[in-house]
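S2.1 Query sequence (Phospholipid/glycerol acyltransferase domain-containing protein)
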Amino acid sequence: MLSFLPAFLRGTLATLLLALNTICCASLLFVLALMKLLPIRSLQKLCTLIMIEVAELWMYCNSGWIALVGKTKWEVEGLEQLDYKGWYLVTSNHQSWVDIVALQHVLNRRMPMLKFFLKQELIWVPVIGLCWWALDFPFMKRYSKAFLAKYPEKAGQDLATTRKACEKFKTTPVAVFNFLEGTRLTQAKHAQQKSPFNYLLKPKSGGIAFVLDAMGTQLRSLLDITIHYPNGNPTFWDLLSGKLTHVVMHCELKPIPAEFLGKDYQNDAAFRSEFQAWVNGLWLEKDAHLARLHAQYPTPTDRAKSNKP
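Output structure tokens follow.
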């Protein structure tokens, strides 16, 4: 709608709208979070439901300014299989900071709100950190192998934290989200890992194994999402300034094998090997899918490679 404006003005306007949207919705969340502290179970449940509505309103308003400042072509498949009242484990490839906003735009109100497992330090992010806390996003503290060798009594606390967080998910439909790669794809990271995949980093299976252990039979479906940006991986400024012109997203619902539910990933070596093989199989399929998308919608990098002598 405002594509005739210079990109800088569009980006500035979008930034102001995002900030205003965040401040207004965060204010409502903080009030509801204080009410939720009262030891009245019915009130706590009501506050949780209203807070989810506020978060979904925030996402809806973000979709509004995205449409206002640019003309993005969204090619999305697989939404018809989703249920707003279901429980899901969700994963996706990770290429850009735009991924999360794109996922929220596409999935908002079509399935339960995505809940991310976050590093404990992120609770201190201004405004947003408190919003994540108010919305019951689980914060986790990960320990290095060196730290655990020095303090072995801390072993297993990750799983205990996951179990505690997932207890809050058992009364309200939820979509527990995890980027299996753990970080955004870059050529430097890809080379450093010596990743066997062409378009992906190596997957980390421990996080979702802990979730399946903690939530048992509640999570029966995996929503496997593949994102491709035909014009190359966008920056967040590209999104704000209306330069995000094309997004291809494919959603596929897959069953979670019953034998993977409620198992001890940390201490059962045989199960851990079997689970990692399943995750690697998912990643091989996703890498092949991305290869097809790159052939159908070549990025500037793809075209540059094909033009080399």
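The radius of gyration is 20 Å. DSSP finds eleven helices and eight strands in the chain.
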